[in-house]
Automatic annotation (TrEMBL):
SMART domains: AAA (SM00382). This is Cell division ATP-binding protein FtsE. Gene3D superfamilies: P-loop containing nucleotide triphosphate hydrolases. The keyword Cell division applies. One of its GO terms (cellular component) is plasma membrane. GO terms for molecular function: ATP binding; ATP hydrolysis activity; transmembrane transporter activity. Part of the ABC transporter FtsEX involved in cellular division. Important for assembly or stability of the septal ring.
Length: 231
């Protein structure tokens, strides 16, 4: 099933925040369609790793491939093209508050080169259906709950059919019931073929939605095999 090129692959990668070394000699791959949790204590390097993979931090040493882009050779001008092949979901929703759900999504499509109005309309309808928010297309962000706003962010990340979603504590600000609904949505998206790498502190979610777990610990990334996942 996973015979294709991995969607993420790191070899001897060293993850820095400026001159501070955060993670040493990172090696792992994520196959197309895989679901992977990323865990680790506060400050262990989860966000730094994700930011490196979506080219918000430079990879200063080692090799990384993401969605067929060589992160170690990436130029500034390549970043928008990489970002069209991946989706990014943060804890803070970062929607434009002065425009509707539809216009938030349309903005991204236009910014990534879409021009055909009918295609844009149908793609927006598709992603909103995927996250269960079809009826909210004309609402403003403030008319939506936190969980609904996060769904719009997920829909936005799906617009360009990414090979992988990078999610950094996507349920960090949400209550447990809403978090579980959001996790279900991520699983449905994953079942439809998109790989997911999700940083989380929420072990309940890992127990409810078992998947592969990578752990940032003592400056390294290790494959977690213990069923308890405890820190
Ligand atoms: N802009 C920065 N400049 C220098 N060091 C930073 C910067 N941002 C984070 N760090 C440091 O890098 C290390 C890793 O931080 P990072 O945010 O990646 O951890 P994390 O595992 O995502 O933590 P959390 O779970 O709290 O989000 C920490 O020691 C942190 O203090």
């Amino acid at each position: 099933m996973f015979s294709e090129t991995p969607v993420v692959s790191l070899q001897n990668a060293f993850i820095y925040q400026d001159s501070k070394l955060v993670l040493t000699d990172v090696n792992f791959t994520i196959n197309k369609g895989e679901f992977v949790f990323l865990i680790g204590r506060t400050g262990s390097g989860k966000s730094s790793l994700l930011r490196t993979l979506y080219a918000d931090l430079w990879l200063q040493q080692g090799y990384a491939n993401v969605a067929e882009f060589e992160i170690h050779n990436l130029k500034n001008r390549d970043i928008p093209f990489l970002r069209r092949k991946i989706g990014i979901v943060f804890q803070d929703f970062q929607l434009f508050t002065d425009r509707s759900v539809n216009d938030n999504l349309k903005f991204v499509l236009q910014a990534t080169g879409w021009t055909d109005k009918a295609r844009m309309k149908s793609r927006i309808a598709e992603v909103l259906m995927q996250v269960g928010l079809s009826s909210s297309i004309d609402k403003m962000p403030h008319q939506l709950s936190g969980g609904e706003q996060q769904r719009v962010v997920i829909a936005r990340a799906l617009l360009n059919e990414p090979q992988i979603l990078f999610a950094d504590e996507p349920t960090g600000n949400l209550d447990p019931v809403v978090s579980e609904q959001i996790l279900k949505t991520f699983h449905e998206i994953n079942r439809a073929g998109t790989a997911i790498l999700m940083a989380t502190h929420d072990f309940d979610m890992i127990r409810k939605f078992p998947a592969r777990v990578l752990k940032c610990e003592n400056g390294a990334v290790i494959e977690q095999t213990s069923p308890t996942y405890g820190l």
